[in-house]
Structures are given as structure tokens and as C-alpha cells.
Design a protein that fits this description.
It is built from four helices and no strands. It is mainly α. The model has no long low-confidence stretch (mean pLDDT 88).
Length: 156
């Protein structure tokens, strides 16, 4: 991976993972502890999760754009000048697990922002949708964690 692409990907993935960790595991629990009522804390938490959802969407789209550039570079170097297929080191092959993690994270984020969050805000069957939202958030956090780990494993 080009040094610049790797640096950009690492920074963006760290922002994605860090924002999810701070909002979901620190800021929101503190809201429920220190704000006067659960309703006020819930409304503020909803706003924080919405903002974090947009940070996730932007981060994932940027990571997919860098991955696409990596895929293009790989495809262009597979053929020599005479059109013959060139054997490349498997280490330089783009990681499709990483791509799957990014797409999965994007789908989870969209489900959380567009499906679960509006129902939680409307308090429509709150226990069910809060559980679904929590599951989607934790699954998305795991996608961000795996993305950071995969980037660290491929430092070439």
C-alpha cells in the first residue's frame, strides 16, 4: 500500500473507531448519570449518536475511496507492457476482508441512522428498538476495530 494511502486510511479509521468509542462508551453513559432526567439525557444522546453516525458515514466513504484507489493501482500493475499477466506478490493484493468490513460498517450505520434511531426518538416500542440500536452500534464498533487492526497488519 502506498505510504500516503496507508497514512490517510489509518487516520480516518482511527477517527471512526475513536469517535464511536468516546460517544458510545463514555459520553452517553455520563449524560445519563449527570443530567437531571432520563428523557433529557435520551434526547441529548440521540443527537450525539446522529452526529456520530454522520462521522461514521463520512469516514467509511473516505476509506472506500482510498481502497478503490488501491484496487485500481493493483489492477494497473498486474499487466506488463506487452500485455502479459504479471505475477504479483500476494502481499500487495487488496484485502477483500477489509472491504467487506467497510461495507458492513456502512450498512450497519445506515440501518442505525435511518431505521433504529427514528423509532428510538419516537419512543416507538422503546425496549425493542433500543436493543436493536445497541446491537447495531456494537457491531459497527467491531467493524471499525477490525478495520484498524487490518490496517496495522498491512503496513507495506
Amino acid at each position: 500500500m502506498k505510504e500516503r494511502h496507508h497514512l490517510i486510511s489509518t487516520i480516518v479509521a482511527a477517527i471512526w473507531l475513536g469517535s464511536m468509542s468516546v460517544i458510545g462508551f463514555m459520553a452517553v453513559p455520563l449524560l445519563f448519570r449527570y443530567l437531571p432526567s432520563a428523557a433529557v439525557a435520551g434526547n441529548m444522546a440521540g443527537q450525539l449518536f446522529l452526529a456520530q453516525g454522520w462521522v461514521s458515514i463520512i469516514s467509511i466513504v473516505l476509506l472506500l475511496m482510498v481502497f478503490r484507489a488501491r484496487l485500481r493501482d493493483y489492477a494497473m500493475t498486474r499487466y506488463e507492457a506487452d500485455g502479459q499477466l504479471k505475477a504479483l506478490d500476494p502481499e500487495h493484493k487488496p484485502n477483500m476482508l477489509y472491504f467487506g468490513v467497510l461495507v458492513g460498517g456502512l450498512l450497519l450505520t445506515l440501518l442505525l441512522v435511518l431505521v433504529a434511531a427514528p423509532r428510538i426518538q419516537a419512543r416507538d416500542n422503546l425496549a425493542l428498538w433500543h436493543g436493536v440500536g445497541t446491537f447495531l452500534y456494537v457491531a459497527q464498533w467491531l467493524c471499525a476495530l477490525i478495520a484498524v487492526i487490518r490496517l496495522q497488519q498491512r503496513r507495506t
